[in-house]
Amino acid sequence: MKNITDSFLCFIYWPSAGSFGFDTDILATNLINLSAVLGVLIFFGKGVCASCLFQRLSDLLDNRKQRILRTIQNSEELRETAIEQLEKARALLRKVEREADRFRVNGYSEIEREKLNLINSIYTTLKQFEIYKNETIQFEQQRAIHQVQQRVLQQALQGALATLNSCLNNELHLRTIGANIGIFGAMKEKTN
C-alpha cells in the first residue's frame, strides 16, 4: 500500500538537488490537495454511503447559500433604509437651509430696521437736547440781563437819591412832595 502522506504533501516538493521548498503552482497543488482530501474521505468513509455524504455536503452548501442570501437581503433592506433616511436628512437639510436663509434675510432687515430706529431716536433726543440747551441759554441770558438791569437801576436810584439828598433841603423836599401829591390828586380826579 502506498503511503497516504505522500498525497497530502504534494504542495511541498523536493528538487533533485536535495533542498526543501514550496510548490508555487497554486492550481496544480489545489487540485492535488482536493483529490487527496476526497480520497481520504472515501477511504475513511467506506461505511458511509456516497449519496448520504453528497446529501450532507449539499445540505451544508444550501444552508450556507441561504445564510448568504439572507445576509444579502438584510444588507439590501438596510441599504434601502439608509437611502430613505439619507433622503429624509437631505430634505430636512434643505428645509433648514431655507429657514436659515430666511432668518438671515429677516435678521439683516430687522437689524437694519433697528439701526434706523436707533439713529432716529438718537437724532430726536439730540434735537430735544439742543432745544433744551437753547432754552436754558436763553433763560440764563434773560436772568443775567434782568440781574444787570436790577443792579443798574438800583445803582441809578442810589445815585439819584444821593444826588437829591445832597441837593435837597427840607423846603425843596416839602415842595416836591406837595407837587407829587397834587399830581396824584389830579390823576385821581380824572379817573373818576
From TrEMBL:
GO cellular component assignments: proton-transporting ATP synthase complex
Keywords, ordered alphabetically: ATP synthesis, CF(0), Chloroplast, Coiled coil, Hydrogen ion transport, Ion transport, Membrane, Plastid, Transmembrane, Transmembrane helix, Transport
Main location: membrane
Record's subcellular location: Membrane
Pfam families per record: ATP-synt_B (PF00430)
GO molecular function: proton transmembrane transporter activity
Annotated transmembrane regions: 31-54
Any one GO biological process: proton motive force-driven ATP synthesis
Protein name (record): ATP synthase CF0 subunit I
Taxonomic source organism: Lens culinaris (Lentil)
Underlying gene: atpF
